[in-house]
Design brief:
By secondary structure, the protein is of the alpha+beta class. A hairpin with a 6-residue loop joins strand 2 and strand 3. The relative contact order is 0.15. Strands 2-3-1-4 form a 4-stranded antiparallel sheet, with helices on one face. Helices cover 33% and strands 19% of the residues.
Length: 162
Amino acid sequence: MAVPQLDTLDTQLVDMLGRDARVSNRRIAAELGVTEGTVRGRIKRLQQDGLIAFTAITGFQIEQRARLAFINIQAEVDRVREVAATIRDIPEVNAVLITMGHFNITAMCLIDDLDALVEVASDRILALNGVRHVETSIAVRTVKYNDRMAKITKPAVIFEDD
């Protein structure tokens, strides 16, 4: 699948919506020097291409007991994509990243307690064919969280095989 190309107007539009998704099409059009119809059409295309989505993002702090957990996975190199695709289907997992380094997959999830983390990391992920090692860590304090760069929400993963 070809990666959609963004022109300067698309980039400016995404930047404005990233700062305030509630800004009106009229205001965007005025600031960018285009018609409101152009803005509406661009937003529709960006949504259809899966490049932007509008959603209410709640901070993970909204759940009093929920903690952000990272599950670092060392998978057999020739099975990384397969393992990552299987992990993405685990409902408790919010994000799956293919990484470089000692671990080649990182999964992020919000957990309510350690039993939930053990169930996901050890009972489900470590049990997958091709997984050699799993290591977990839990965020105990959030020093900085920029939800514009790293939205932590319920899974809406887009994963495509090359």
